[in-house]
UniProtKB/TrEMBL annotation:
Record protein name field: Coenzyme Q-binding protein COQ10 START domain-containing protein
Signal sequence range: 1-21
InterPro entries recorded: Polyketide_cyclase/dehydratase (IPR019587), START-like_dom_sf (IPR023393)
Organism: Pontivivens insulae
Entry keyword annotation includes Metal-binding: no
Pfam families, sorted: Polyketide_cyc2 (PF10604)
PROSITE patterns per record: PROKAR_LIPOPROTEIN
Keywords from the named record: Signal
Amino acid sequence: MRPLILSAFLILAACAPTAPPATPPEPTPPPAPATEGLIEIDLVETYPLSRADLRTFMEENPITAFFEPSDDIAPVIGLEILSGTWPEPGTVRRVALADGHYVIERILENEPALFRYQIWVFTNDVGRGVEQIIGTQRFVEVDESTTRLEWTYALKPRNALTRFFVNRQVPAVRAYLQSGIDGMRAALSEQ
């Protein structure tokens, strides 16, 4: 009977929301970028801009500014460079969320046709189930005035048990990411 009560207590404790930290987190050494066991969310959108113009637009108007908050995902309210120079590879920044939580991310690659990053510090509930996120944005020239953005947002669950719970969150994450893509499209159409 005791193991059952202890197990029930641990499950309930694990389900309690994580409180925001009293102070912003500092980066820990990042894990090697995951290449296996990822849950991938793929989004594709075509924009009426050359690759160079789309990249410039995205540098001047970060996609985080276009995300629509949801009940599951707090909006981004601040970005702070911790080391390096954005957007150079190796640069690390802390992302502040409206609910008092943070994530820390770094740039893995930044080339004209590719932007790749890793998120590995989470102070919110995401950190319970996700070890890291690898984001890959490919900029494919359709023609000289049209570029297709292919965005893969790959979540690496901590283990087989958390994989189940992470999979259940994929629709909310997909909708959040899509809101950024849609917001960018709307902003471009207003120019």
